[in-house]
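sanity check this chain:
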Amino acid sequence: MIRDSNEGKEEATGRAEIIASFPYEDGKVLGVCVVEGYITKGAKVELSRKGQNIGTSTISSLRQGKINKTRADKNQECGIILTPSLDFSLGDMLLSYS
């Protein structure tokens, strides 16, 4: 999927479902399962709920367990932090772009 943005064309790299939420410092960590493609640290993401866009952000941290990662592939679970933080709910979807 390719979309036009203010910065040019962007291609979707993956989708992830939010399956958990963990408190962390002043915010929350999103526990996600990648359901299609892959997601990467630094990628732009769109948060959607029931098909409606809730907001856009950037993946500032991506971890599997306590290990920092740069990428999570299909069927992998990981914890991510978004900057800026978005108001998410369990079951929401993240669409990652490059």
Remarks:
- Residues 1-5 have pLDDT under 50 and may be disordered.
